[in-house]
Amino acid sequence: MSADRLSGLLERRSPGAWELYRKVSDARETDLTRSERREAFRRENGWAARWWDRGLRFACASDPERLAAAVAEASRLPARAEAPPRLPGSKGERPAPDGDRPLPPDVFERLGQLVAEKSRGEAVLASLALRSGRAEERIVNGAGLSVSTGVARRDGVARAVGRRDSKGCETRAVFRWDGEPDLESLAGRLADGATFPLAPRGVTFARGAWLLDPGVAAAVLAAIAPLFCADTLPRWVKKSDFAARRVRIADDASADAPFDGEGTPTRRVLVVEDGALAARLHDLRSAARAAELPTGHGVRPSYRDLPRPGPRRLFLETSQGSSPRELLGSVGRGVFARALTAPVSVDLALDRYDVQFTGVSILAGRATEPVAGARVRGRVSELLSRFGAIGTDLQFFPMPYPAGAPTVLIEKVTFE
Amino acid sequence: MAELEDAAIARWLEPLASDQGDVAEVFVETRRRTVVDWSDGEPGEARVALEAGVSARLRRAGRERLVFVSGAGEGEVREAIRGLTSSSGKTAAAHSAPAPPPFESEPDPAVDRWIRRLGPIFARHAGRGRLTWSLVDLDRRVVPSGLPPARSTRRLFSLEGSFTAASRRGDEIRAFSFHAPEADSTADELKVALTTASLPRERPVPFGDPRGDVLFSGGTAAVLFHEILSHTLEAGAEESPLSRLSEARVAVPDLDVRDDASRLDLFGGYERDDEGTRPRVVKLLDSGRLGGTLSDRSHGGARGSTGHGRRAGPADPPLPRGSNTVVSPGQATTEEMVRRLANGLWIDEIQSGSVELASGQWRLEYPHARRVRRGRFADEVGPGILAGEILSTLSAVEPVVGREVRACRSLGWCSRAGQVVPVQGAAPDVLVRRLSVRDR
Beta partners for B413? Predict the structure, then answer.
């Protein structure tokens, strides 16, 4: 069965109110440890259909014949009545960037050596998983849309283990390399994450400034990101007074892909401007519910998932940034949060957050001693209003979409 | 793969696994997943997935290569094997694949039956809320070189989400999670689970104390032992604090914990693992002494695989993983266990858990609990986090264990290295002293 026949089948079921998505990907994953090497080559074909026929229905399959059968089965299921949104009708094509940049063959050894050096021999690289690949997504719909986008990616996760006396600690670092591999920075995160928790003490003072490493700040940003896509905002959110005045949060994936997962053109959206909640990230359905225009944020984590509104390349930016060294120098007493020791926990409905981390204590603008573990918790609204200064060292991390942040200084928090 | 004989695949694989200890195999999966999101007792979005995938794998001397291709026909099997041979420098029999037969599928009658049943169940027990129901039908075939082919099928029922329950402090949203292999008794079990989850509760207060004795009730001890025994005894877990303590006594002699994949009444059960091996019951803790490890073909050594080579799907390599963590019963009644607890926390629901092998630290999150004072139930407590170190936790298990074993249906999926596999467990009441407790 061809894509044209599937389109015809969907048009007959739901004239003008359907969408057909296909993804073909070729990926290579290499898992390395000191004693093992695993390689996986994956050629995946994914098909998905979404249509409105007495309610929203979705089917996906690994080939067009199975998709036709899945469409028939999903049509028999009960579904709540929902009017179709206005589907986009643009046309466009962008192939994946050329050339699969090969990784250095001795990347495990080089990264391992850097981790050992930076940790003074206290941490070892335990494993490194590298993923690289290309994918092509093609979307057609009942409004005449026909777009195709090629994407390439190179990311992975590394794990290091620190040992001191009888104590041990493990840390993981996810990374994404848009350009050349940045082994130095990755090794630094791994070495610090694996050895700081082995320090003899936690934080020795109750209150102070909180300096967030870009990786920690990006994780906090990703944790609050559902607010930018919510149909209904929690009662504590004041749109005009959402965060400190210097905070600006944008989403702009136009360099990654010209269309989102529904075929809407990608554009830059300023979500938070001068501390005020300025816009929402919409997919087609959420835009229709809110009677607004879609913003190009229909996200498909996989062909198995229905498109949902979500960030695509979300980042914290500023026009009045300071260098990380200046930020460090401005701290009288505080803690630099270098790595998380547990996932950031956020309850957006109740306006609560909880961040557990390891890092270095700061006195008079100088890093003094490692902090084994500390915890900061409180109200999300207060955290956002206390963003004191923002760095210029913007870095992106896979969350799994690229989330970016520079070093961030939070004024006055209570450490536990 | 029905049209393609196992013998033909085995012949293609034969030249690849030339040395003793080499592993060469083809793994084929077909999966049907039906999902309906229920909102306030009414079906909302409907989704159906029909997928097939094949992978070929070759493992030799610490190096492994896996090639995955979508589809399950002869052409895909050949392509996956060719991918192996081209990368290993050997060639397999090269034939052109015939055109695949047309795909035929009959709708699953169980889906209609469940949708008819779920409406009234939700109307009675969870009228307001968002719950996602799914029924997964898995069919897996493994054709290993030099070993007989194997097939395994599973039907997995899940209901997850949250609903609004009446409470003495007003309405409150409660998370709900229920996982079971589909069986005649599933609907009745689900009704009981929903009834229990929707019982009125008092206003919770903080537990306050940084340490406390904890009575794991309602089968939740299975989650604790899944984290601190099952993960730590997975073969290849070199950083595990238990890896060099073989047969050491680490807990009271009254404690027996095993991994039992043959318990098909539990969510993590299977007849064959994803390498085609029939699973053996592995004693993780035998009268308080550390037992064996959970192994796959790569880590089995001379004793062979214990049948715990598991994959999330055909695109993933098998890893040694736990299945069902089962704790043997003792003699004590529930009332005796509560009296024995005297002062502490009684927990009958765990939301999530994790363990870090290098530091030996584990943590479990609970949504609510009951404080017990002088052997009697007191305040509602929660939510909170329990934490501890593996060896000290094992040594803090009380010698008296409950006599009634319950399946922990809220435990359903376990993630490791990005691979999510079904797991579950069953346990009697287990009392552990001096755990770290933190209010959330």
Answer: B422
Which segments of B89-202 are extended strands (E)? Answer: 129-144, 150-165, 172-181
Q: Average model confidence (pLDDT) for chain A?
A: 93
Q: Which helix (H) or strand (E) holds A195?
A: helix A183-195
Q: Is B99 on the interface with A (CB under 8 A)?
A: no
Whole-model pTM: value is: 0.92
CA separation, residue A24 to residues A50, A139, B70, B154 (Å)? 18, 12, 10, 28
**How many helices, marked H, and strands, marked E, lie in chain A?**
8, 22
Are A377 and A398 within one domain?
yes
Annotated domain spans of chain B: 6-197, 211-439
Continuous H helices in A33-135: 64-76, 107-118
Expressed as residue numbers, the domain containing A105 is 3-198
Tell me whether B356 touches chain A (CB under 8 Å): yes
- Rounded Cα distance, A252 and A83, in Å: 29
Please give the backbone phi and psi of residue B266, each rounded to the nearest 5 degrees, phi first: -105, 155
Q: Which residues contact A208 (CB under 8 A, 6 or more apart)?
A: A331, A332, A333, A334, A335, A362, A412, A413, A415
- Residue of B145, B126, B157 lying closest to B35 (CA atoms): B157
Contact B58, B23 (CB under 8 A): yes
pLDDT at B89 over 70: no
Structure tokens at B426: 């069953």
| Amino acid letter, residue B10 | A
pLDDT the model gives residue B108: 87
Kindly identify which residue of chain B lies nearest to residue A33, measuring between CA atoms: B62
Answer whether B75's CB lies under 8 Å from B100's CB: yes
Classify each residue of A373-412 as buried b or exposed e, where b means 16 or more C-beta atoms within 10 Å of its C-beta.
bbbbeeebbebbbbbbbbbebbbbbbbebbbbbbbbbbee
Q: Where in B217-275 does DSSP place strands (E)?
A: 257-259
Q: Any chain A CB within 8 A of the CB of B48?
A: yes
What's the rounded Cα separation, in Å, for the pair A265 and A93? 11
Alpha helices in B37-73 (DSSP H): none
CB B271 within 8 A of CB B141: no
pLDDT tier for residue B99 given thresholds of 50, 70 and 90 = low
- Whether residue B205 contacts residue B293, with contact meaning beta carbons closer than 8 Å, is answered with no
Burial A49-75 (b: 16+ CB within 10 A, else e): bbbbbebbbbbbbbbbbbbbbbbebbb
Residue entry with tokens 């996200």: A299
Q: Apex CA B408: angle with CA B405 and CA B411, to 5°?
A: 155
Same domain, A175 and A252: no
| Mean of the per-residue pLDDT values of chain B | 92
Among B37, B47, B243, the strongest candidate for a mutation testing the A interface, having the largest count of A CBs within 10 A, is B47
Measured between beta carbons, the chain A residues lying within 8 angstroms of B34 are: 73, 77
Query: pLDDT per residue over A42-53, tens digit each?
Result: 999 999 999 999
- Could you tell me which of B345, B397, B393, B336 has the C-alpha nearest to residue B371? B345
In this structure, the answer to whether residues A124 and A218 fall within a common structural domain is no
Q: Are residues A165 and A26 in the same domain?
A: yes
Kindly state whether B172 is in contact with chain A, defined as any CB-CB distance less than 8 angstroms: no
User: Cα separation of B275 and B148, whole Å?
Assistant: 11
Cross-chain Cβ contact B63/A65 below 8 Å: no
CATH of segment(s) B6-197: 3.30.2290.10
